[in-house]
Write the structure tokens for this entry.
Amino acid sequence: MREKCGIFATLSENSAKKAYYALLALQHRGQESAGISVWRGRIRTVSGLGLVTDVFKGKELAKLRSNLAIAHVRYSTSGSLNETQPLETECCGMRIAVAHNGTLTNFRPLRERYEKLGVRFRHSVDSELLGISFLWHLRETGDEFEAMKEVFNEVKGAYSVALLFDGKILVARDPVGFRPLSYGTGDGHYFASEDSALKLFVEETRDVRPGEVFLLSENGVESRVLVRESHHHCVFEYIYFARPDSVLDGTNVYSARVRMGQELARESPAEGDVVIAVPDSGRAAALGFSQESGIPYAEGLIKNRYIGRTFIMPGQFNRELKVKLKLSPVREVVAGKRVVLVDDSIVRGTTMKRIVAMLRKAGAREVHVRIASPPIRYPCYMGIDIPTRHELIAAFGGVEKVKEAIGADSLAYLSVEGLKRAVGREDLCTACLTGEYPEWAFKF
């Protein structure tokens, strides 16, 4: 399983209701399922397939009155109802609910080891292993922080995770900090994959540090940094996944994306009459490209906002159909013009090919594609749906090959160096761009 999700956890009054609103704010991180677990003397979970508003109708939230809640929205490449999260599992006579964002790189050998020790797994998703490992070591150590330290030493890969058990919540970010996780406090304690979801409840937030663990209970909150490796925050969060109004590890996502467009215009200028964006993913970069190049910006593609993201929908047929439903060109903006089309990335190429054809049909004289990230050439093993290289249009050919495949008059990508300058930090995981994978995630 290679998942990219959103998680939330809180110790506060009306925790389930707050979790519901937080999941709405995190809906962009996953549209396949949603769930909330609370503690009411035992774990109670409501989850299901679909959007947050599809899962929680009527009286579901009324069943979840508690001061402790964890929640999840899910994105994956496949799945069934029993793999919605938070997922519940058992080990060592204890029960636990798990909400996880990321992918575990040593899931299979670890699962086999635990199965040989007599542990019975109830799910196929790798997230269950986090709960099993934690409960196993909790029985051995009798201390939640010591148990999580053993998890850090044992489980490799990417995981921001919330665990609900025995009237407590444990929240942790892996020692490398691949996936984002934010913390805020006010009338309670709140955690979310992005701080934009926390602003519903608190004003001041901070990033959970890599290797930091929080333990929440009715007795209060305690936190410790248990293990720290070299930070490798996922660069794709800045490029695509995170909301523009989020701040990830001190960097505002919107500002970073505008700078990506500016860097792109400096590196790969284009002769055009109008700059347009692929909405909404390319808008900030397109504005930056326009600012730097002096070519006016206009809305040349209109998005149907009742259609979800194409990249995070499983199945090529669904993605292709949704492109047609999702975007419509503004003929008055593009007809007879040399169009500079800016987007954040090209993954499979299907969407871009159809957009270029759509603009030509609407009368565009030329279409020059500019991509505000480097070519994606390698699979991600830390939580993005890029499982094999053959799905990546840029994996086995140069820019010219991709240009011909999408039907553009010209094509240019942002360089890795330009991307790092735009984000403003060097400690990024760029494995999907460079093929250089962080050592810690594969040290097993």
